[in-house]
């Protein structure tokens, strides 16, 4: 199974020209990748123009940072699964901590997951605690985000599910984040996998990729994947520098 590396650009860059340049540099740098699936998640505005340069034989996939659960209607400012699919999107990030901080609940996350998976796209469910709790093996908030986010979803749809463990305290927003260490990541993602086994059975859960995100860059990516034993990474700030992001991809590519 290929390692999945997702570049979450968040609300960057500021112009379409910059977005195209960044996407094209990454596209050219990712040509030789065989063991890594690289994914770009730009702002909605840039999805159609980036989709054009990723068509054909590009190794890159296109993702969206969010979605709305309804198929259409009077929902100002929202975007549907069908609209994203028509623009070339293959994967959607759901429940990112920055969305949750704006008021997104587990119930809303559940609706969005159903919309993504029901449209035969892949969904990345983000889970993570606000503060490190050394005395707790598995913070309740993560268990709740998993169970409530995935409730009443058909088991057959889990084949397109990806789970990203992204502790909020580790996110590099405004330079405050501090990356976790591979041993801690290994322990918590192992517990996440066990929880998924209990929820949907080992056979189905074994096909769900578990990623790590939080202050990931080209210098620590390989250690996180190799020693943290995760199936890939969700990358924020480092993905806005084409040289660093390509270096990150190549470091993960080396892992056997």
Content of β-strand: 15-25%
How many strands appear in the DSSP assignment?
A: 8
**Percent range of helical residues:** 25-40%
The CATH H-level homologous superfamily: Aldolase class I
Instruction: Indicate the low-confidence ranges by residue numbers.
Output: none
Tally of helical runs: 10
Rg (CA only): 17 Å
User: Would you tell me the structural class of the helices and strands?
Assistant: alpha/beta
CATH topology type:
TIM Barrel
What spatial order of strands do you see in the largest sheet? 1-2-3-4-5-6-7-8
Number of domains as seen in the coordinates: 1
Order of helices and strands: EHEHEHEHHEHEHHEHEH
What does this structure look like?
- Keywords: Cytoplasm, Gluconeogenesis, Glycolysis, Isomerase.
- Pfam families: TIM (PF00121).
- It is an enzyme of class 5 (isomerase).
- This protein is α/β, with parallel strands linked by helices and 256 residues long.
- It has a single domain (3-253), classed as Aldolase class I (TIM Barrel, Alpha-Beta Barrel).
- 38% of the residues lie in helices and 16% in strands.
- It has 10 helices and 8 strands.
- It has helices spanning 16-29, 47-54, 81-86, 97-100, 106-118, 140-149, 182-200, 202-205, 221-227, 242-253, and strands at 3-8, 36-41, 60-64, 91-94, 122-127, 161-165, 209-213, 232-235.
- α3 links the parallel β3 and β4.
- The longest helix has 19 residues, at 182-200.
């Amino acid at each position: 199974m290929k390692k999945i590396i997702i570049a979450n650009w968040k609300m960057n860059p500021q112009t379409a020209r910059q977005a195209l340049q960044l996407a094209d540099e990454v596209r050219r740098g990712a040509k030789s990748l065989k063991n890594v699936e690289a994914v770009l998640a730009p702002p909605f505005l840039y999805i159609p123009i980036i989709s054009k340069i990723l068509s054909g034989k590009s190794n890159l996939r296109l993702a969206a940072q969010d979605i709305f659960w309804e198929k259409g209607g009077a929902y100002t400012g929202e975007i549907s699964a069908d609209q994203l699919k028509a623009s070339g999107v293959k994967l959607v990030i759901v429940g990112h901590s920055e969305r949750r901080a704006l008021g997104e609940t587990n119930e809303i996350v559940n609706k969005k997951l159903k919309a993504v998976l029901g449209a035969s796209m892949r969904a990345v469910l983000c889970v993570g605690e606000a503060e490190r709790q050394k005395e707790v093996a598995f913070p309740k908030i993560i268990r709740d985000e998993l169970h409530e986010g995935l409730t009443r979803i058909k088991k057959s749809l889990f084949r397109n599910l990806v789970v990203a463990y992204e502790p909020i305290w580790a996110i590099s927003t405004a330079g405050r984040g501090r990356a976790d260490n591979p041993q801690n990541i290994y322990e918590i993602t192992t517990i996440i996998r066990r929880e998924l086994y209990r929820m949907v059975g080992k056979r189905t859960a074994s096909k769900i990729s578990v990623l790590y995100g939080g202050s990931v860059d080209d210098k620590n990516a390989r250690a996180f994947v190799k020693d943290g034993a995760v199936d890939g990474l969700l990358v924020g700030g480092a993905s806005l520098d084409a040289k660093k992001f390509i270096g990150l991809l190549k470091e993960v590519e080396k892992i056997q």
